[in-house]
């Protein structure tokens, strides 16, 4: 996990025009072509954390600190009386039902431990870069081609995630798309 040490050095900026990641006000520059495809997941975690910090959250970069031993939690973000345990997925592949089950399974032990020690409202958030790329879409049964703008697109696997009952509804499951542009 060599990239983590660079990402810990400071705030990142994705510069698509120059095809590079600028870290700590350009004190360190990582060209896109020096990154492995697997490195982009860590870059995305850092990016999402920064977005949340800009929104007033206090963010712990759990995945960058723990690496592969992160227990399925990349970020832990707190604000007011709420704590969000976050799994970031930066992939161009579709997220399947079995992948959702693995995400929930992997994080469940950590969530249960944290639930016992928290007096805050707890959320488990799945964050992706692009909903349309990451989830298979289908038209709803009541789709009206004359008024497609009024017919909501359905993402069955995403809905499966959101409908999943978690620790007897004590941890609410939420979803968010946070785009990170890279060419």
Overview features:
single chain, 183 residues, alpha/beta, 6 helices, 8 strands, globular
Provide the residue-averaged pLDDT: 85
How many beta strands in the DSSP annotation?
8
Strand percentage, roughly?
Answer: 15-25%
- Please mark out the parts with pLDDT under 50 across 5 or more consecutive residues, or reply none: none
Helical content band = 25-40%
Structural class: alpha/beta
What is the molecular shape? Answer: globular
Main β-sheet, in a few words? 5 strands, mixed
Q: What is the helix tally?
A: 6
What is the spatial order of strands in the main beta sheet?
4-5-6-7-8
Q: Give the CA-CA distance, first to last residue.
A: 23 Å
Radius of gyration: 18 Å
Structural account:
It is a single chain. The protein is of the alpha/beta class and 183 residues long. It contains 6 helices and 8 strands. It has helices at 3-7, 39-54, 62-66, 97-117, 131-134, 156-163, and strands at residues 12-15, 20-23, 28-31, 58-60, 75-79, 82-89, 121-128, 171-177. Strands 4-5-6-7-8 form a 5-stranded mixed beta sheet, with helices on both faces. It has a 3-stranded antiparallel beta sheet with strand order 1-2-3, with helices on one face. Strand 1 and strand 2 form a beta hairpin. The longest helix has 21 residues, at 97-117. The mean pLDDT is 85.
């Amino acid at each position: 996990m060599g990239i983590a040490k660079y990402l810990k050095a400071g705030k990142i900026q994705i510069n698509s025009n120059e095809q590079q990641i600028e870290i700590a006000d350009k004190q360190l520059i990582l060209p896109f072509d020096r990154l492995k495809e697997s490195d982009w997941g860590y870059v995305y975690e850092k990016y999402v954390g920064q977005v949340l910090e800009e929104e007033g959250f206090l963010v712990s970069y759990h995945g960058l600190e723990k690496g592969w031993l992160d227990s399925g939690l990349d970020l832990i973000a707190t604000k007011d009386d709420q704590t969000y345990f976050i799994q970031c997925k930066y992939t161009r592949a579709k997220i399947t039902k079995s992948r959702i089950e693995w995400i929930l399974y992997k994080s469940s032990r950590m969530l249960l431990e944290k639930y016992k020690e928290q007096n805050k409202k707890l959320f488990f958030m799945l964050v992706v870069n692009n909903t349309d790329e990451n989830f298979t879409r289908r038209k709803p049964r009541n789709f009206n081609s004359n008024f497609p703008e009024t017919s909501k697109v359905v993402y069955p696997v995403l809905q499966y995630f959101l409908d999943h009952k978690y620790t007897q509804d004590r941890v609410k499951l939420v979803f968010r798309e946070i785009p990170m542009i890279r060419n």
